[in-house]
Each structure stands twice: as structure tokens, then as C-alpha cells.
Amino acid sequence: MVAKPEIVDLTRIKPVECPCGQARRAFSESPEFPGTLHLTQISLDAKPHHHRDHTEVYVILTCDADAAIELDGELHPVRPLMSILIPPGVQHRAVGKMEVLIVCTPEFDPADEHFGDPAVSSA
Question: In this structure, is residue 40 part of a structural domain?
Fold first, then answer.
């Protein structure tokens, strides 16, 4: 059987609460894609977290002038159309209001959102 393309209007997906704010998640049911795509509105109270199994790529779509990404405790300024690769085990959070597109592999599982020091929580 030949795989068929899928077209998704991310604005029509109901947002769900997440540690970063609100996410609209697509393609989680697609056998042709080994991950998920998230359109995420980052809130000002985004929480630092890490994943043991997931790799994420953030693409900054829009952001405040003082927005940043915190990676293992170090702040990095961001601007629209920057991209950040976040491997498993990296403590991260977005700082400031922004809208990001996140590609997550493998398929996103909320059970892989961990809070606290990755070195301590993975032991």
C-alpha cells in the first residue's frame, strides 16, 4: 500500500496544556512519520524540563525581543527563524513569550517530560 500525504491545519487542532504553555500536536497517529509536530505558544511561566528519550528541534516563529532558550542552565538569546536541536537529557525551557514549531522524535509521550536535574532523575 502506498503511503498518502497528510495536510493538517495546525490552527484547527485543540491546544493542550504543557510545561511550556499550550501545544497543538499533529501527526501522532501517522505511521509515515516517526514523531510529532507541535505548534506551541510559550507562556511566561514555562518550566525547565528534559526528556530521556525524545529529541526536539525548536524553530522560533515569533518571539519577544528579549526571548531566550535555556539549555542546561545557560541562556541563549533567540530571534525568529532560529532553530535549536535539543538531544535527550538536556534540561531546557523557553524564556519569554514566543511561538515555536517543535519537531519531536520519536512520537511525543507526555510521560517523557521530567522535571529536575537530568543527572539525578535518570539515576
Answer: yes
